Amino acid sequence: MIKISNQKYIKNFVLIFSGLCLFIAIPLPLLVAKFVNTESYINKSILIKLNNFEHIDTKKYNTGFGRDKYIYHLQSDGVYYNLSYYIEKK
Questions:
Q1: How many CB atoms lie within 10 A of CB 72?
Q2: 43 and 76 belong to one structural domain
Q3: Could you give phi then psi for residue 88, rounded to 5 degrees?
């Protein structure tokens, strides 16, 4: 068994390695989201999952914070629903 006389080097290596991993892992979803058209994906998934609802209208609001708010007005069995979601502007 090899004994390491100075544990400081191992501790520094672990800290630097974990910092590099975080530096790479945190912005990765942002890069992926930049190249994926989230608006069409969300619209298609809403239409697929809510196919038993009657679509009344859709309103789009500019929130002023770099994203748009969409509100879907839906109806099912005489009950009205408001579905809202935000999409970041590119």
A1: 19
A2: no
A3: -75, 140
59 - beta bridge partners?
71
The DSSP call for residue 50 is T
Q: What is the pTM of this model?
A: 0.37
- Please say if the pLDDT value at position 66 is more than 50: yes
Range of the domain at 43: 1-51
C-alpha–C-alpha distance, residues 7 and 16, integer Å: 14
Backbone angles phi, psi at 2, to 5 degrees: -95, 130
The neighbouring-strand residues paired with 57 are 73
DSSP 3-31: PPS-HHHHHHHHHHHHHHHHHHHTTHHHH
